[in-house]
Design a protein that fits this description.
Structural class: alpha+beta
Helix content: 10-25%
CATH topology: Nuclear Transport Factor 2, Chain: A
CATH class: Alpha Beta
CATH architecture: Roll
Oligomer: single chain
Strand order of the largest sheet: 1-2-3-4
Shape: flat
Largest sheet: 4 strands, antiparallel
Number of strands: 4
Order of helices and strands: HHHHEEEEH
Number of domains: 1
Length: about 140
């Protein structure tokens, strides 16, 4: 799941997100509009296997949060080292610490430490996941699109 979220940008998601024919809602394309690919279906295919049903529905508004701009955006980012540690307070909860390497269109790279919390539910699937961006990866991406 971290690989999907922190390697990119995902040009397919950006293309779908910026096409007004696509909607973020449950359903499927009608036969009259077979070209339309619903964002929800794309996200469900990409992230659904990692989440419980309720966890996925909670995550959808935040999916691909760092995948911004247009298809032609030339920044890149990739997931680096990841540390996952079970919390003492809750047996199904894990603390995440990881690095994301950002490279702008000029080839200048910067490493961003990230943190998160993951809670697992039934079947070992994510029930909830939250990320903290203490050094402003999202701001840096916005400044470079």
């Amino acid at each position: 799941m971290l690989n999907e979220e922190f390697n990119g940008p995902n040009k397919e998601f950006i293309r779908l997100k910026t096409n007004p024919a696509n909607v973020l809602g449950k359903g499927s394309a009608s036969s009259e509009d077979s070209e339309a690919v619903y964002l929800y279906e794309f996200l469900e295919k990409t992230y659904g296997p990692y989440f419980t049903s309720s966890g996925f529905d909670q995550f959808v508004p935040y999916a691909y949060f760092y995948h911004l701009g247009e298809e032609s955006s030339s920044y890149q980012f990739r997931l680096g080292a990841v540390e996952i540690e079970k919390t003492q307070d809750a047996p199904s909860q894990y603390e995440l610490e990881f690095q994301v390497e950002f490279t702008n269109s000029f080839g200048v790279s910067e490493s961003f430490p990230m943190m998160g919390m993951a809670k697992f539910g039934d079947g070992g699937k994510l029930q909830n996941i939250e990320f903290e961006d203490p050094q402003g990866l999202s701001v840096t991406i916005l400044e470079n699109i």
